[in-house]
């Protein structure tokens, strides 16, 4: 029905100028606010992908909020697509802070951008290592899967942040991997409760 509706002549007439403006606007605004690649970077060299390709440099953009407990088990991971980038405050700012759903006085909250996204993580817009002029990968960017992104996020949690256990929270990708593998802990040592 939606495709049928969008193919009607009057819908095309209405949408065409809007699409042209958005496609050619240098200052395209996002309905969710300013989309940036602000944050910290975690990089793994020669990251193996599920597709059997090797990503020479796999960078994940992330931000943290709150403090990791001495037992390193109070982490909440907020995954893409609940955010479009690593800026949790831009997407869920009203829920972030002391006494709120994402309580920074109790939890160490990690918000990751996904592998393949253009907001700070390695993506088709990243410079290709085979390009002499630092041209972006573009269509030559290797296929990445949700599992690839989750594995990179788990390495971030363990290697960069020292998280031993993800306590609770919004972790769709981690839960997907957990269900897919049918296990309580993943081979990289981060326990999923």
The profile of the biggest β sheet is: 4 strands, mixed
Radius of gyration: 19 Å
Q: What's the pLDDT, averaged over the residues?
A: 76
Envelope shape: globular
Number of helices: 5
Indicate the proportion of strand residues.
15-25%
Helical residues, percent: 25-40%
- Strand/helix succession: HHEEEHEHEHE
Structural class: alpha/beta
Short summary of the structure?
With 193 residues, the chain is α/β, with parallel strands linked by helices. Helices cover 27% and strands 18% of the residues. It is built from 5 helices and 6 strands, in the order ααβββαβαβαβ.
Secondary-structure map:
Elements: H1 2-7, H2 9-24, E1 40-48, E2 54-65, E3 75-78, H3 88-92, E4 108-112, H4 146-160, E5 165-166, H5 172-181, E6 191-192
Textual characterization of the structure:
Helix 5 links the parallel strand 5 (165-166) and strand 6 (191-192). 31% of the residues are buried. This protein has helices spanning 2-7, 9-24, 88-92, 146-160, 172-181; strands at residues 40-48, 54-65, 75-78, 108-112, 165-166, 191-192. The model is unreliable at 1-28 and 180-187 (pLDDT under 50). The longest helix has 16 residues, at 9-24. The chain is 27% helix and 18% strand. Strands 1-2-4-3 form a four-stranded mixed β-sheet, covered by helices on one side. A two-stranded parallel sheet has the order 5-6. With 193 residues, it is an alpha/beta fold.
Key structural traits:
single chain, 193 residues, alpha/beta, 4-stranded mixed beta sheet, two-stranded parallel ribbon, 5 helices, 6 strands
């Amino acid at each position: 029905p939606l495709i049928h509706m969008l193919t009607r002549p009057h819908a095309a007439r209405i949408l065409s100028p809007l699409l042209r403006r958005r496609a050619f606007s240098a200052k395209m605004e996002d309905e969710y606010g300013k989309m940036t690649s602000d944050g910290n970077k975690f990089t793994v060299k020669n990251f193996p992908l599920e597709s059997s390709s090797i990503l020479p440099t796999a960078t994940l953009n992330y931000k943290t909020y709150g403090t990791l407990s001495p037992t390193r088990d109070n982490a909440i991971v907020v995954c893409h697509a609940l955010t479009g980038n690593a800026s949790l405050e831009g997407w869920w700012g009203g829920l972030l802070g002391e006494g709120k759903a994402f309580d920074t006085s109790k939890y160490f909250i990690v918000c990751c951008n996904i592998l393949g996204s253009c907001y700070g993580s390695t993506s088709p817009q990243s410079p290709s290592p085979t390009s002499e002029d630092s041209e972006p990968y573009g269509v030559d960017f290797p296929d990445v899967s949700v599992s690839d992104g989750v594995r990179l996020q788990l390495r971030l949690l363990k290697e960069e942040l020292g998280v031993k256990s993800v306590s609770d929270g919004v972790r769709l990708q981690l839960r997907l991997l957990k269900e897919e593998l049918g296990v309580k802990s993943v081979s990289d040592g981060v326990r999923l409760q």
